[in-house]
Every structure is written in structure tokens, then in C-alpha cells.
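Supplementary material to the annual report.
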Amino acid sequence: AQKVTQAQTEISVVEKEDVTLDCVYETRDTTYYLFWYKQPPSGELVFLIRRNSFDEQNEISGRYSWNFQKSTSSFNFTITASQVVDSAVYFCALSGNNQGGKLIFGQGTELSVKP
Amino acid sequence: DVKVTQSSRYLVKRTGEKVFLECVQDMDHENMFWYRQDPGLGLRLIYFSYDVKMKEKGDIPEGYSVSREKKERFSLILESASTNQTSMYLCASSVRAPNTEAFFGQGTRLTVV
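Predicted assembly:
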């Protein structure tokens, strides 16, 4: 069975703080793919990043960075120097190699960045 | 600009009504999905289609059916709407490969009264 857990339901920070969103996954597939999506108040999910299970290199994109650790089955997302525009619900998702593209989502973390 | 379009942003229906939620994508994607989003539960897969006329049940198919007569269109049908189907419904599409992202519509917030 596949499962994604985002234990943090809500996080509130003040602008310019760093914040880390946690994601833990379970899968029996040896090859799988992990994703992060952002859902702003408008409602449409926006793709942020994809990571393959065989590539444990961390990634940085501007203020965003992702830490993938197979040993702990985690794929955490850090926003550095948060801004009000980062306020959104963030979802972590998993797709197994034999799942035909089906995405399994976590519960989501609602991030509120206050000025 | 790639697009997934859901026919309604907000919908109010009565208990027992048959409800159709429509979704159209313009990217020639093989896969299309219907998810339901509820607070604290994230997105849960209702149905998945990987080709015209093909469908697979997701995690919560009870009370729902789907139709995919054309590649670009995927319809979600609530056979007899009930109040516990009040929710946000999200349609998505992707190419048929596990390592590609899905593209989402703007969502339909359905209220069943």
C-alpha cells in the first residue's frame, strides 16, 4: 500500500522566517516519484517539484529547497525567508512506478505567513 | 498554456439529484483523474481513467461513477447526491507515465442541501 503523511496540519510564521514542511511516505515500489504542489487561495494546485527515488540529491530553487532522505522515507520542503505570498496549502504526493501515473496525496499543510 | 477546465466553480444541488461534473483538458493527455478534497483528509482519488472508455476505481468510488467518451473530457457523476458528498472536487490530467506531474483544474465546490 502507498501512503503519504503530512503531520503538520497548520503552520503559522512571521514574514522572513524559515519554515519546513514535513512529508513522510510509505511504498513497496522500488522506483517511485515524489511531488510537491502548492494550492493558493484560488484553488488550483500548482506543481512545484518532482523527485525520483533513485536520485537523492537535494534541490534548491530560489527560496525553496527540498531534502529527500530515503533512509527515513521523507521528502521535506523548506521555504527560506518566507513571504506573505507563500501562504497556501502545500501537498506532498507519491506515484509508484507501477501505478500508471496515479498520485497519492498527503493531508496537506496550511501555511500562513503573517506580515 | 496548458489547461484543465472544470465546468462549474460553485454548484448547489438538492439531495437525491443526479449531478454531473465536467472536466476538459487540451493537452492530449491519456490520464485523467477526479479527486475529492476535504479538510484534514487531503486529496482522495475517486476515479482514474487512462484511456477513452477505460476507468479504474480509486480509493473512494462509492456513490460516484465516471464517463470518458472522448480523450479530452472526463465526467464525474453523482448518481443520487447526498449531503456527505458536499466537498471540493478537483479534476486533473497527465501523460501516462509515473514520473510526470499532473495538471489540475480550478476545482468545483459542490454543496448538497
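Residues 4 and 106 of chain A are 5 Å apart (CA to CA).
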